[in-house]
Design brief:
The chain is an alpha/beta fold. Helices cover 33% and strands 24% of the residues. The chain has three domains: 74 residues, no CATH class; 238 residues, pyruvate-formate lyase- activating enzyme (Alpha-Beta Horseshoe); 59 residues, Nucleic acid-binding proteins (OB fold (Dihydrolipoamide Acetyltransferase, E2P)). The two termini are 38 Å apart. It binds S-adenosyl-L-homocysteine and iron/sulfur cluster. S-adenosyl-L-homocysteine binds next to β13.
Length: 400
């Protein structure tokens, strides 16, 4: 049985992220606190993979990124005091079917990453890139469909390089669109170097694949992009984003951007702001560069940009990004959207929140069941959040 507070738990599973130093430390702090309160602690995820047996000081079991199905054995057989961080067998956990299914689910289609962007720890903690067999993914999706799932997000570090048995990512999306009738299918993350016109056109021509593109920019300066090993130029990024909006005018484009990469000068940072101005993102996750050993940039460069410079660049970037988010949200005024309700709005009681097909959060007055599809008309924008007037509950399937 799962519980809602640390207090009530006997066993605590801490799922960790090692992409930046702060979340890594936060995960370990949480594990220590749980241990201090006498809980059995299992650490899993990238920090488990990275620190391995060193974590047995603060955890009763350490389970790496490709061994997470072992959690079941640990819990069933009460096998504490163990370390599972070999990359191990790849297929077994794919067959593992979830019991608790929500209206919105994630399905892994590819594990690992071969890109070795110079700042990134993922290839070290998640191993080599492997695409999951297409039939296996389809059977998981069909199962989720039979359980009434309304939306699925297909996950991979670089989904555009998905390739299995002669089937590339665009072909794979076509197969899913035909065989699976889950109303909304999303995918993330797209790599700007690898996303093809074929993928964009496939999204355009599909019924279920939603027009949302998460296309991490990382930096606007071609020099910094090369130092990061990203494999595209500033101009190529702007061009591909333009193509997405040209082929699918209703598409949303979201991104990840970093400031303070060791070779980033003030002029390079200005180039990032220039891309923000030209592309006008619908949403962005923004970070300060964090050196991650053993990634290349942590070894090769000194992390010598002063903290206050990085902080200022981040604040300035957030401000600039928000200007265009606001501009993009205002384009929604007076238009109708189908939203999928996620639950009550945290900001205002008596409101529910949901997502448009382009994956943008909206709020609407009234309490609606999570998983309800609702047609709304956007009446106002509060801050950066569109507020919709509910028009009609939509029942799926509508067009199948
Ligand atoms: N596979 C995805 C990214 C996965 S990591 C891609 O290629 O875009 C998620 C985000 O974390 C990255 O897009 C990047 O913006 C950020 N990130 C990764 N390593 C980082 C580091 N060392 N410091 C700061 N941010 C980092
Ligand atoms: Fe990291 Fe680059 Fe792979 Fe993304 S593509 S996970 S940033 S190495």
């Amino acid at each position: 049985m799962s519980v809602n507070s640390l207090e009530d738990a006997d066993i605590v599973i801490v799922n960790t992220c090692a992409v930046r130093q702060k979340p890594e430390e936060r995960g370990i702090r949480y594990a220590k606190e749980a241990k201090r309160r006498g809980k059995k602690v299992i650490i899993m995820g990238c920090v488990a993979q990275k620190r391995k047996e060193k974590l047995l000081d603060v955890a009763d079991a350490v389970v790496g990124t490709r061994e997470f199905h072992r959690i079941v054995d640990i819990l069933k057989e009460w096998k504490f005091g163990v370390l599972y961080t070999d990359f191990g067998s790849l297929t077994s956990y794919f067959l593992w079917r979830r019991k608790n299914v929500s209206f919105s689910e994630f399905v892994t289609i590819q594990i690992g990453c071969d890109n070795f962007c110079s700042y990134c720890i993922v290839p070290y903690t998640r191993g080599r890139e492997v695409s999951r067999p297409v039939d296996d993914i389809i059977s998981e999706l069909t199962y989720l469909e039979s359980r009434g799932v309304k939306e699925v997000t297909l996950l991979g570090q670089n989904v555009n390089s998905f390739f299995y048995d002669g089937i590339d990512f665009a072909d794979f999306l076509k197969v899913i669109d035909k065989k699976v009738e889950i109303p909304r299918i999303y995918f993330t993350t797209s790599h700007p170097r690898d996303i093809s016109l074929k993928v964009i056109r496939t999204v355009k021509n599909s019924k279920h694949i939603m027009p949302w593109f998460h296309l991490p920019l990382q930096a606007g300066s071609t020099k910094v992009l090369m130092d990061m090993g990203r494999g595209y130029t500033k101009e190529e990024y702007i061009e591909i984003a333009g193509k997405i909006r040209e082929i699918i005018p209703e598409a949303t484009i979201t991104t990840d951007i970093m400031v303070g990469f060791p070779t980033e000068t003030e002029a390079d940072f200005e180039e990032t702001l220039d891309v923000v101005k030209k592309v006008k993102f619908d949403h962005a996750y923004m970070f300060i560069y964090s050196p991650r050993y053993p990634s290349k940039s942590a070894i090769v460069y000194k992390n010598n940009i002063p903290e206050e410079v990085k902080g200022r660049r981040l604040r300035c970037l957030i401000e600039e990004v928000n200007i265009y988010i606001k501009e993009r949200r205002e384009l929604m005024l007076g238009k109708e959207y189908e939203i999928l309700i996620e639950g009550p709005s945290k900001k205002s009681r008596d409101y529910s929140k949901g997502k448009t097909q382009g994956n943008l959060t909206c709020i609407v007055p009234g309490i609606f069941e999570p998983g309800t599809f609702l047609r709304v008309k956007i009446k106002e924008i509060i801050g950066l959040t569109p507020v919709g007037e509910p028009l009609q509950v939509i029942s799926y399937p509508i067009s199948f």
